């Protein structure tokens, strides 16, 4: 994601919120820097301040639109309706007026990514939806494969939780369960695939790692124990 914003405080807050939710963020402070960054590594989405030290963000959008349909969200302190229309007519996909909350920003980013054919999350994001019947209903846990961390599942309406970093073995264990979604994976198979041996199948080591993964998913019932056999992931999986 390319974030184009010359206000250091605003840019830092936005970048932190995006990174905490698994997005990789590249920064630019001027139209010229943004254009260079875009050509160097085309992003999945551009968050663009309307007024920059060396020019107008709308002009940058028109330049981008000559050769790319990358989604753009304009971010500005100006609430004037005419300026919003100008930005949209230049090719922006959405428009956010300062001041705004980070939850609103993230919701708009995800909505634009969905509308433009992208998944509403960063590359490598796998969404784990708890099986039906949770009370109260819960959000999906989000496994970020490249970052090896997971955003826990929480009841709907709660604040967005901070991501949890997975250890090497925790990550390998969770990925194995995700790949076998709906099927029981025996302790022996887990031991072989995660530890490369069978010794752990009869030890407490596996149980300790399963408990840690359950805690980091935010909903312990998402990893179910099948007595005398092994474990299964009790979730619907979407994503890459």
List how many beta strands DSSP finds.
15
Strand order of the largest sheet: 2-1-3-6-7
Biggest sheet overview: 5 strands, parallel
| Mean of pLDDT | 85
The count of helical stretches stands at: 8
Low-confidence stretches: none
Radius of gyration: 21 Å
How helix-rich are the residues, as a percent range? 25-40%
**Overall geometry:** elongated
Descriptors for this entry?
alpha/beta, 8 helices, elongated, 5-stranded parallel sheet, 15 strands
Short description:
Helix 6 (168-179) crosses helix 7 (187-195) and helix 6 (168-179) crosses helix 8 (205-217). The protein is built from eight helices and 15 strands.
List the helices and strands and how they pair.
Elements: E1 2-4, H1 8-20, E2 26-28, H2 31-40, E3 46-49, E4 51-52, E5 55-56, H3 57-65, E6 72-76, H4 81-90, E7 94-97, H5 102-115, E8 125-130, E9 141-144, E10 149-151, E11 164-165, H6 168-179, E12 185-186, H7 187-195, H8 205-217, E13 223-226, E14 230-233, E15 235-239
Parallel strand pairs: 1-2, 1-3, 3-6, 6-7
Antiparallel strand pairs: 4-5, 8-9, 8-15, 9-10, 10-11, 12-14, 13-14
Structural write-up:
Helix content is 38%, strand content 22%. The protein contains 8 helices and 15 strands. The strands form 4 sheets. The chain has a 5-stranded parallel β-sheet, with helices on both faces. The protein has a 5-stranded antiparallel β-sheet with strand order 11-10-9-8-15, with no helix packed on it. A hairpin with a 4-residue loop joins β9 and β10 (149-151). α6 (168-179) crosses α8. The radius of gyration is 21 Å and the shape is elongated.
């Amino acid at each position: 994601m390319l974030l184009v914003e010359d206000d250091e405080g605003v840019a830092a807050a936005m970048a932190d919120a995006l990174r905490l939710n698994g997005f990789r963020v590249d920064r630019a402070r001027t139209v010229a820097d943004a254009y260079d960054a875009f050509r160097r590594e085309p992003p999945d989405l551009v968050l663009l301040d309307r007024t920059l030290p060396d020019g107008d963000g709308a002009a940058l959008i028109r330049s981008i639109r000559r050769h790319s349909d990358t989604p753009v969200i304009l971010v500005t302190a100006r609430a004037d309706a005419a300026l919003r229309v100008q930005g949209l007519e230049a090719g922006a996909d959405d428009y956010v007026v300062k001041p705004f909350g980070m939850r609103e920003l993230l919701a708009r980013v995800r909505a634009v990514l969905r509308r433009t054919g992208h998944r509403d999350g960063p590359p490598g994001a796998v969404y784990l939806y708890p099986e039906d019947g949770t009370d109260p209903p819960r959000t999906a846990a989000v496994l970020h494969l490249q970052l090896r961390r997971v955003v826990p599942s929480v009841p709907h309406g709660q604040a967005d939780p901070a991501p949890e970093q997975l250890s090497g073995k925790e990550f390998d264990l969770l990925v194995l369960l995700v790949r076998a979604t709906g099927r029981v994976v025996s302790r022996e198979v887990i031991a072989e695939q995660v530890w490369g041996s069978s010794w752990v199948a009869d030890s407490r080591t596996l149980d300790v790692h399963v408990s840690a993964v359950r805690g980091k998913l935010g909903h312990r019932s998402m990893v179910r124990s099948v007595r005398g056999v092994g474990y299964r992931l009790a979730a619907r999986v979407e994503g890459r």
